[in-house]
């Protein structure tokens, strides 16, 4: 049974705890120093504007508070460490949607992690949507890396730009294996026409971590660019996302 950390004056007056009929028999354990330290840290984190307290948490302590915010379990930090070790770090833990992880830390804990990741993605997306596209901007890289950096399978996406060059929307149009994602030129063009796009930016990830474009990447980019040109559109760039960075076809001179 997990004992809550109630203040000594909370239940019983005069500092005494009354035993309840639910059966809290036996001696009530005192708050240990660890519990007191955790409570003090939680209080500091809850103070408005106190980001330094949260920054002092280790990855395991941070994950433990995410997966067990009410601190109902004594082993939440141990489960957090197991999660980080199994996934290979904080980023992969947030991105991983694997039944094996659910078996290790529980479905509710996995849901909490996925919600944190979704919040991160939406926050970074808010910094790019409706703004003029800039392949080299930090906000662009932040969003695409939050979305794709720790994915274990290749995902092919298209960013649709309006006539002013602003980021109108983006959509995943293909998801595949660890080293391949299906890309259908007709589907890309259909979506571009449906969204009344003036230009496109292609995006995909390399789960290996190395963002260097492959020969196949160059080939499919050329095919999409030719189809877009025939319909009065253009491909402004193709960005490849990996844990080692983001590669730009435009910067590498790979767009004809």
From TrEMBL:
InterPro entries: MPN, RadC_JAB, UPF0758, UPF0758_CS. GO terms for biological process: proteolysis. The keyword Metal-binding applies. PROSITE patterns: MPN (PS50249), UPF0758 (PS01302). It holds the Pfam family RadC. Residues 127-255 form the MPN domain. Belongs to the UPF0758 family. This is DNA repair protein RadC. Keywords: Hydrolase, Metal-binding, Metalloprotease, Protease, Zinc. The gene is radC. One of its GO terms (molecular function) is metal ion binding. It comes from the Bacteria. The keyword Ion transport does not apply.
């Amino acid at each position: 049974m997990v004992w809550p950390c109630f203040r000594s004056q909370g239940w019983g007056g005069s500092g005494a705890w009354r035993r309840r009929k639910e059966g809290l028999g036996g001696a009530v354990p005192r708050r240990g120093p660890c519990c007191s330290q955790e409570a003090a840290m939680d209080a500091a984190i809850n103070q408005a504007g106190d980001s330094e307290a949260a920054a002092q948490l280790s990855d395991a302590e941070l994950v433990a508070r995410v997966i067990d915010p009410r601190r109902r379990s004594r082993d939440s930090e141990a489960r957090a460490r197991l999660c980080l070790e199994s996934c290979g770090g904080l980023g992969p833990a947030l991105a991983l949607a694997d039944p094996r992880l659910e078996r290790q830390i529980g479905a509710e804990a996995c849901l909490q992690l996925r919600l944190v990741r979704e919040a991160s993605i939406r926050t970074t997306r808010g910094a790019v949507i409706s703004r003029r596209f800039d392949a080299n901007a930090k906000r662009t890289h932040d969003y695409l890396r939050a979305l794709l950096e720790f994915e274990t399978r290749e995902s092919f996406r298209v960013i649709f730009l309006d006539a002013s060059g602003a980021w109108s929307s983006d959509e995943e149009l293909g998801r595949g294996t660890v080293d391949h994602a299906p890309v259908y030129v007709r589907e890309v063009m259909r979506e571009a026409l449906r969204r009344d796009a003036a230009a496109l930016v292609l995006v995909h990830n390399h789960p290996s971590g190395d963002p260097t474009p492959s020969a196949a990447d160059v080939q499919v980019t050329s095919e999409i660019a030719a189809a877009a040109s025939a319909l009065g559109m253009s491909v402004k760039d193709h960005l490849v996302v990996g844990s080692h960075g983001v590669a730009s076809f435009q910067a590498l001179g790979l767009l004809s």
